[in-house]
Sequence to fold (160 residues):
Amino acid sequence: MIDKYYVKDIFSSLVWFFSPDNWLRVAANFGESIANFPLLVLVGLGIVVLHWRFRLNLKRRLTHLLDKNPLGHSFGEILSGMGYLMLLSLYGALLMAWIGGVLLLNARADFLAMLSPRVWSRRPCRCSSCSFSFVCSNPTALPKPCSIGRSMSPTCCTAK
Fold:
């Protein structure tokens, strides 16, 4: 549901995104992770080299496949074409996953979670009566009812 907290989160995310200091911190975290795990450079370079090595061959095969009459394609050719397209697009996903993995390996990285004060306050809470675990999504809310109808511990949903 779109409420005032959602709009505040969007605004604070945009402010974070357009702040150069935050991107410099992300770059520093990335460099620190690479310095701590230098073999990860080989993984990233491997992804890039394999893409550049096989990209032209895949495009050539796909072009050859598309030059034929579409009505004359067999089921195997259709599957091959889909496989070629998947392999051509896999490069971007692998590179993004590699960058995310490198950033996660940094022990001091903030994981881009400092977007809003509302996110800072999200922490696991436990009901004092039935030990039901939940995450407080609204730090100013009243205690929520637990699974057996009792109220949650009031310390979980109060702003710190």
Notes: Confidence is low (pLDDT under 50) at residues 113-123, 153-160. Residues 121-160 form one domain. Residues 60 and 66 are 10 Å apart (CA to CA). The helical segments are 4-17, 20-36, 40-66, 75-104, 117-120.
